[in-house]
Design a protein that fits this description.
By secondary structure, this protein is of the alpha/beta class. The protein has 2 domains: 188 residues, 3-Layer(aba) Sandwich (Rossmann fold), CATH 3.40.50; 77 residues, Glutamyl-tRNA Synthetase, domain 3 (Alpha-Beta Complex), CATH 3.90.800.10. It is built from 9 helices and 12 strands. The strands form 5 sheets. It has a 3-stranded parallel sheet with strand order 1-2-3, covered by helices on one side. A 3-stranded antiparallel sheet has the order 4-5-8. The chain has a two-stranded antiparallel ribbon with strand order 6-7. A hairpin with a 3-residue loop joins strand 6 and strand 7. Helix 1 crosses helix 9.
Amino acid sequence: MTYIGRFAPSPTGPLHFGSLVAALASWLDARAAGGRWLLRMEDLDRARAHTGAAREILRQLERLGLGWDGPVSYQSARTASYEHSLEQLQRAGVVYACGCTRQEIADSTLAIDGSRIYPGTCRNGIAPGRRARTLRLRTTAAPIRFHDRLQGELTQSVAREVGDFVLRRADGAPAYQLAVVVDDADQGVTDVVRGADLLDSTPRQILLQQLLGLPTPRYLHVPVALDAAGEKLSKQSGAVSADAPDLERALAFLGHAPPGPMPARELLDWARRHWDPARIPRQRAIRA
């Protein structure tokens, strides 16, 4: 089976060190396996997307030497595919309309990923006088078990630890969890390598794969880069744009410190030949 990996940034600004770590790990894992590496822009959230950010990310990847295979995929051009999968779930009877606002859910128990566990207010129908805002998946208590190539064996009860999660947002856009599952299946992705901040989303995605009859790729979640204050590096917190000099530091972050200084092209070739996921630190987050 041909290895197919992918990198899926959101065009909310240029790549910073944290996103470079995820891109580099994904690229190296694909290239070391002699596989393909696809590029996808997760641009469904129009409010957060910045004009020109997608083009800048492409230029950054080119400058860094992280070339991709095939055309770039844009989620904003694939809404029909998401709607088709949503309709399939609706026919299966596992989707229901929800009229709750974020404010109304704000007092609910915290979920494993820091969001709020939906209390099931609209599970049996929306209260009279309320209108539907979102569509949610009706989860079950059956645990989701999966193997992460770095983090090991993991189990999560989506119903208990997350609750019924959103498939279509209040603005009408497909939710991330649905879109990423459909995209990975349609692109034939066999291996997902990404930051450990998405580790807790994986059971939701596996649940959707099972309900839609789609294959489950292998997963490898690498540590997230933190700033000096212990917060995740992000574009919103002002993380600076990454460039070629950051490659060596990113490799060291991933447990692959090179033997000495070398040009970027040679550095990537060395890293590809020496890539070993077992050398990556198992922590979910590390200060950069």
